Amino acid sequence: MKKCFLLCCLVMMAATCFSQLKDTIFFNNGSNLIGKIKKIKLGVLSFDPDDANDITVQLRNLRTLAAVRKVFRVETTDQAVFLGKLFPDTAKGYVQFVHNNDTAGSYYLQNISVMYPYGIAFLQRFTGNVGLGYNYTRSSNFGRLNFDGALNYSSSKLEVSLTGSAIYTSTDSSFSRDNERLTIKNNYYFSPSWFATVFFNYQRNLELSLDRRYQEGFGIGNKFFTTQHVYTWARGGIVFNQEKSTEKITTGTLTEFFGQLEFNFFRFTKPDINLLMAQTVYYSISQNRFRSDGNSKINWEIIKNFKIGLEFYNNYDSNPPVEGSSKLDYGILFNLNYFFY
Question: Which fold would CATH assign to domain 124-340?
Answer without folding.
Answer: Porin (2.40.160)
